[in-house]
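Wed. Picked up where I left off yesterday with LysM domain-containing protein. The coffee machine is broken again, so keeping this brief.
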Amino acid sequence: MKNFSTVGTRLALAALFTAASAASAAPLSCEFRADAPDSHTVVKGDTLWDISATFLQKPWCWPTVWGMNREEIANPHWIYPGQIIWFDRAAGRLRLGNRLDADGGAGSLSNDRLQPRTRTQGLGKDAVPSIPAGVIEPFLTQPLIIEDDELKGAPRIVATQEGRVFLGKGDKAYVRGELKDNSSFQVFRPGAPLKDPVTKQIIGYEAFYLGTLKLQAEARPGASDVHTFTVATANQEMGKGDQLRAVPPTPMQNYVPHPPEQQVAAHVVAVYGGVTHAGQNQIVSINRGKLDGLDIGAVLQLYHAGRTVSDSTAKKGWFGREQQVRLPDEEVGSLFIFRTFKHISYGLIMQVTAPVEVGDVAKSPE
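Structure written out below (tokens, as returned):
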């Protein structure tokens, strides 16, 4: 099936999708492709997503056919170039191993059947990553969404060095507000409100990331009413009225995607970048978050919401009105959740067959 994409070059999303669902959820089907090869030798540049798609109809079934349990998939598992992934057709499993020497027979599988290796010291430069950091890295720490409780009481720039309208790198900024023992801050400007497509209530605000500030001197009672900051980085012009939030800790770069532990039904709230449609490797926000059962790595299926149409073939009702029927939702792709807020989450669109737009459905895999 041909993928739809709005980017010039397809960036492969290396995702290790699990089919380990909660005990209360219905089991997910996990089938091998009819043309699945007997083996695949891992080479540099491979992604786990592409490798799994070689064997499986649904790539997020990977850990199920590895036979991993819930505890095992919670840990990072890495695969390295030179290793061989074997399709054990009799057992219906994928296995990781090495070719035996000539005495063992070409193409045979070592008795020591390996599982993807767990490493506690990080990914390592040669390992096949589960998600390439470059695809979503800018979206991991920048304040793309601001919720109401973050706006209230957020420190703000109240004056600039020598009365400048805009600040650049190295300039001083004077800030009022509670720092809460933090010294590094991101500067953002609240943007358009994000409304739930169903309830129409405001659930957050887009945030324009402007740069970072570094604390130079805190306010001192009797001497100064403001904190003195220096602009460390400036992505866009910043000035009076722009707000601050503490720089969050560097996120863990290992992801183990999985279906949500509870059933989730969401809608696309916005497409990042201000466009109306999104394709492969673009970012969308949905109206469900941490408090709704989503966590980092959750996988959802994307659907065009079924339209309501008139049934001209049915008997007309009162005043000659035609009966209305709702068409089924049409699946168009997959969404990988990589950042969650209370009631909003950001997801990266996987492969898609049609453009994704605001109002589309995102729900647990079936």
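Quick read: Confidence is low (pLDDT under 50) at residues 1-27, 99-123.
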